[in-house]
Amino acid sequence: MRAMVLHGRDQALRLEHLDRPTAGPGQVLVEIEACAICRTDLHLLDGELPDIPYPVVPGHQIVGRVVSNDLVGLPAGSRVGIPWLGYTCGACDYCGSGNENLCDAAGFTGYTLPGGFADYVCADARYCFELDPRLSARALTPLLCAGLIGYRALRMCGEARHIGLYGFGAAAHVLAQVLRFQDRPFYAFTRAGDEAAQRSARSLGAAWSGASTELPPRSLDAAIIFAPVGPLVPAALAAVRKGGTVVCGGIHMSPIPEFSYDLLWGERRLVSVANLTRADGIEFLELAAKIPIETQTEVFALEDANAALEALRTGAITGSAVLEIGGGSED
Q: Does the N-terminal or the C-terminal CB of the chain have fewer CB atoms within 10 Å?
């Protein structure tokens, strides 16, 4: 099979031909139709994640069809989605308390487990979501991380009504549609001068859009930070009211600068989101179908993964970059 492989920090991915994997106990072999690209893939390339097991095949927003299985409940031909969280032990206190996303023995697709920048992947059947076979694979891929993490971050906001979104990329494009469906006003914060992203936010129903250095026209009940930029933390705290919540939605963030305690005082809360749970996935995917969520994608060939990653890095992508890999993406 073809695979785009990372061999070291700050290196480009290499197109290689590897042996097709074989499903082990409890696994399914999936022929990949499409895989979206996530900012976490950039953190992987830049060596910002700990203990990267080189060589590694990135990609964790996978849509494909089951080819074979090890006597598990997903028959051949099933359309499945494979997310970032790809394995947990099922036995620790975190797993037993409904917090499997915090499992210390967790495995992560496209990081500690093989990923989706390839023709095939083997995955733990417990962590595959069944998807509608009639829908476009490329349109479904952003839901597997951008959608799931955005939804978990929103859950951290509780009943907050007026919500700020810092960084209007793939996750915010999906979450904006959830907020619009729930009739909750949202306020979009982008890089200064990024008029394209601000126009995109307004087209999705933003009550206001502007630079992340600005304050919105009213105090926010909560804010979610998707951009991995530490200085956005005090900026968001300054924008939320007393009792409000700021959620950090990324797996990695640049250093958070020192800030005055006044920004946190007044029972404001600062929390992070770590991974997701299967319950998050099931709940969100049902909601996404009900809305229904429409994703904005820009398609690249597998061999062009490096160009797609660079486009994401420079902000040239509106919505999600998606690698179209196998057949069936137009089903």
A: C
Q: Domains, the chain, ranges and CATH?
A: 2-144+296-324 (3.90.180.10), 147-272 (3.40.50.720)
Q: Convert the pLDDT of each residue in 185-241 to its tens digit.
A: 999 999 999 999 999 999 999 999 999 999 999 999 999 999 999 999 999 999 999
SS3 279: helix
Which tokens belong to 56? Answer: 């590694």
**Distance between CA atoms of 233 and 231, rounded to whole angstroms?**
5
Pairing of strands 14-17, 27-36: unpaired
**Residues 116, 145: contact at Cβ < 8 Å?**
no
Question: What digits encode the pLDDT tens for the residues 80-135?
Answer: 999 999 999 999 999 999 999 999 999 999 999 999 999 999 999 999 999 999 99
Cross-strand partners of 129? 81
217 is written with which tokens?
């026209």
Q: Exposed, middle or buried: residue 265 (CB in 10 Å: 0-12, 13-18, 19+)?
A: exposed
Tokens of 296: 């904005």
| pLDDT range class, residue 71, cuts 50, 70, 90 | low
The per-residue pLDDT for 327 is 60
Q: How far apart are CA 87 and CA 94, in angstroms?
A: 13
Q: Spell out the alpha helix ranges (H) of 222-277.
A: 232-239
Helix or strand or coil: residue 154? helix
* 225 in Cβ contact with 250 (< 8 Å): yes
Using the Cα atoms of residue 109, residue 150, residue 126 and residue 295 in order, give the sign of their dihedral.
Answer: negative
